[in-house]
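call fold(seq) -> tokens
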Amino acid sequence: MDRIIPATRPDWVSDDLFPFESKFFTTPSGHRMHLVDEGAGEPIVFVHGNPAWSFEFRHPIKGVRSDFRCIAPDHIGFGLSSRSDRRRDHHPAALAREFTALIDYLELSDITLFLTDWGGPIGLEFARKQPDRVKRIVVANTWCWPVADDFHFKSFSFLMSSWVGQYLIRHRNFFVNRVRLRYIVRLELSRVWAEAADGRGCEASRWLSSLDGNS
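ret:
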């Protein structure tokens, strides 16, 4: 029985912005994991973080699918994948098991792992256990060391798992409206500072002024 099947997706997903065929993998635990699988050649597996899904890799997939096989799954509870009522199914360790099940089913080798955010520990768990199947690792905005004793991570995890954090996430879209927005602004500030250092201070000044609502 084929555990990967094509399927329709919600109308809110733009075919113009996300011009790929959606497929769904039935995991060993019975969840439906959404993925895109485009192109041919050596596989590049894009592993997203939180809060994100395979949509964030649309541009690199379009750029390299003529030379590589591009695979981008959505973790369980993210994007177009199914949700679970059990909180532990959304923990990184569980997500790593589901991710490994997909890679094993596809029988991939010579893999390039492209890892962002939570995708770092999730993808590196696979690389740690099956290093002979990984050819390259691209690490972008993630971490690869224990954080159990790190106050920043412990406090943030405690807040997000509390009833207050869950309310903010589910009813106020807190991750997108606050956490993600701060990250985007930080990236833009880095770009602006780089341009200012490169002698393009006028453009940098205009962008900074726009943040304050000035003309």
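The two ends are 61 Å apart (CA to CA).
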